[in-house]
Amino acid sequence: ATAAAAAAQDSLLNICMDAKHHKTEPGPEGQLYGQCALWKENACCTANTSLEAHRDQSYLYNFNWDHCGAMPEKCKRHFIQDTCFYECSPNLGPWIDQSDTSWRKERILHVPLCREDCEQWWEDCQDAVTCKVNWHKGWN
């Protein structure tokens, strides 16, 4: 039973989501850019995706970090790290959820966040603003 449980858990690691910019299988990507470089040894993203994750106006989601004035750099780094994690990590299996949208079949849901990271994100972004209630829909 223990071996079966370990095998089931391992099947949730080293996989890529079925989403718009993800590779089908994780593997080395030696040229990952900036904050995404953490995953260069085994990534679900390409070098180009990692570069786009750092652009203010990126083709990844047709979204601009500075959509409501300049987002402070100390705040933006948290959103970039989140994007790199989402696009590049091969270990999101435990949180992959089915999604029925035109641009992805899977998403991640209920991923835990360390208290320290949450508090630092708040500290760095508490003075930043957005002009949108929901970043996932309603853009035109």
Write up what this structure looks like.
The protein is mostly helical and 140 residues long. It has one domain. The protein is built from four helices and four strands; from the N terminus they run H-H-E-E-H-E-E-H. It has helices at 2-10, 47-52, 73-88, 115-125, and strands spanning 57-58, 63-64, 96-98, 106-108. The strands form two sheets. The protein has a two-stranded antiparallel ribbon with strand order 1-2. A two-stranded antiparallel ribbon has the order 3-4. Strand 3 and strand 4 form a beta hairpin. Helix 3 (73-88) crosses helix 4. The protein is globular, with a radius of gyration of 16 Å. The chain starts with a helix and ends in a 15-residue tail after the last helix.
Question: What's the layout of helices and strands?
Answer:
Blueprint lengths: L1 H9 L36 H6 L4 E2 L4 E2 L8 H16 L7 E3 L7 E3 L6 H11 L15
Antiparallel strand pairs: 1-2, 3-4
Helix pairs in contact: 3-4
State the total count of DSSP E strands.
Answer: 4
* Distance between the first and last residues' Cα: 52 Å
The biggest sheet, with number of strands, parallel, antiparallel or mixed sense and barrel status, is: 2 strands, antiparallel
Number of domains as seen in the coordinates? 1
Beta-strand portion reads 5-15%
Q: What assembly state would you assign to the polypeptide chains in this entry?
A: single chain
Low-confidence stretches: none
Large-scale geometry: globular
The secondary-structure element order is: HHEEHEEH
Number of helices: 4
